[in-house]
């Protein structure tokens, strides 16, 4: 029997989307071309030099359905047409800021200016395509290079396969997270309310994932979840905080240390003129909620809310027009953030580097730590 997901018409390929809702926008040929002068609001005291955007993929099917309750049958983790639209809209927002308002970027895709990197998973690759299409108002047949890497060397998510120590620490804390007293009590109650057999493995992150995926696409959820919504959200966040344990530096180092190091290296390369691509202005990183959460924790701005689909962390490098001193500005879902340890929203680069120095790890240090038997943190 065809499942609810198929009936809801939420599936479609990126190429199909090109010919339908995503590409029914204004013809890009009618846009007035803008030349990328590098000027970004001349009245500002700061000149934009580099942008890095780390974003979550768009809406998808659940990774796993709630057993005995929800109807499955779809491919798990599949990007939907709703998700494609979300990333296209994010691309349009970036276009407004960096093309139309500031002429920072060229109005069409230029591989010398823009680098696109994704985890090697279909939903993130397709999300990246949709964002770029919105950003540059692309037509269907235009090809954009999207770089990926093998899973064992991936730095765009906490890599349990490529880092032995992280696997040891995380597997213990994942198992422990559902047994914490408050979480265990609430989990037993919701399991009973939903009529889920006691032997079924379930946790609040799984429940939340299925619930949010269905609601995003207008699909039905058990009515009992209406009264549990706030608690499900709270307990899912409590679980992931226990797993990542941000109070212990080593955990976040292992989760996002190489990514933090890469983003700082991109900044230094731009400032020092040592980048192999001197014209590069934009780095796009297509990733996951499990990427954004530890990054937000490392930055000290995690708001104890699960990042929604298509959420983005944007890191801008600016130079003061009079002093030439470098500053970094971070936004999360289009809201500027005051990073703890920074003296202002425009954070002096030295202060920003000091904030991240606790978590940034070079590739060599990361591998050394991953291959250590215990590290400084024991499970």
From TrEMBL:
Gene Ontology CC: one annotated term: mitochondrion
Matches recorded under InterPro entries: Acid_Pase_AS, His_Pase_clade-2, His_PPase_superfam, Histidine_acid_phosphatase
Any single biological process term in GO: lysobisphosphatidic acid metabolic process
UniProt xrefs under SUPFAM superfamilies: Phosphoglycerate mutase-like
GO molecular function, one term: lysophosphatidic acid phosphatase activity
Gene3D superfamilies cross-referenced by the UniProt entry: Phosphoglycerate mutase-like
Family classification: Belongs to the histidine acid phosphatase family.
Protein name (Swiss-Prot/TrEMBL): Lysophosphatidic acid phosphatase type 6
Organism expressing this protein natively: Dissostichus mawsoni (Antarctic cod)
Biological classification of the source: Eukaryota, Metazoa, Chordata, Craniata, Vertebrata
